[in-house]
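Chapter review: from sequence to fold.
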Amino acid sequence: MTLQACDQRFETFVAGEENVLAIEAAHKVIVEPGNQYNPLVIFGPPSVGKSHLFQALRVRLEEVYPQWNILSLPACEFISECEQAWDKNSAAEFRQSLWKLDALMIDDVHQMQRSGPAKEELYHTFNRFVANGRQLILTSRDAPADMLDLGLPLRQRLQSGLVVRIDPPREQLIRDLIDRESIRFGLRLSQKASGLLSREIRHCRELQGVFHELRHQGDAGGRLISLEEVRAVLQKHASQQLKISDVTKVVCEYFNVELARVRSASRRQ
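The C-alpha cell string follows.
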C-alpha cells in the first residue's frame, strides 16, 4: 500500500482539540447515516485535514455499507458534470442519477458558488436526500453562512444539518503529526530536529514535503536525522516559495506588457 493510500483512513488521522468535533461528527454519520447529521458540512482553511477526513469517511462508509451506491468527488468535477448535463439538455436524467445514490460526498463545495447549474442541482438533490434519509457530506473552505454566492435558500439548507469547523493545528498537534509521519516515512529524527519542525511547520502537507525530501536523500532511512539536515531542507523549501514578483514577471512575459502597466490603476483587460 502506498503512502498516499495509507493516508486516507481514520487510523492515520491525527486527532486534537482543533478537529475533535469533526471527527466525532464523522463517526456519528457512520452509525446513523441520513439522520440528524444531514447534511454534514466540514469547513476550515486549506491544509487542516478536511480532505483527509472526507476520504476516511468515504472509505469507512464503503466498509460498513458495502451495498450502498456512494458518489464521492471534488466540487470541480460535480460542476463539470452539471454544466455538461445542462448543455446537452439532459439535466433531468442527471438529476435522476443523483437521486438514486445512497450518499453524495462533495469536496471543496465553496467552488460551486460560480456555477448556476451546480447550485441548482445541489439544491434539488439536497431536498430529495433529506426527505428520503440519504446522506449528504460536504467540505468547504468557508462556512455555509459566508458563501453568499450560493444564494440564501441553499445556504439555509446547508446550515440545517451539522456544520463543524477544523482549525489550523497548534504546536501539540504538529508534534503528534511529526511523530506519526516520521514513522510512516521510516525516518528517525533527533529531538532537536523534531523540535525545529514543530516550530516551523504549519500543516501536514508542508511536513510531508520535508519528509519526502529527507527520505530520498539516500541513506536517511534507519539512521538518526540531525538538526542541521532538517534546517537545510526547511531553508531550501523557504527559498522555493513563490513571490508576488515572480507572478508579476510571468504575467508580463505571457501577455507581453510592461511592468508599469500591470501595476497601474487601469483595469483594462
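Two observations follow directly from the output. The chain has a mean pLDDT of 87. The first strand starts at residue 40 and ends at 43.
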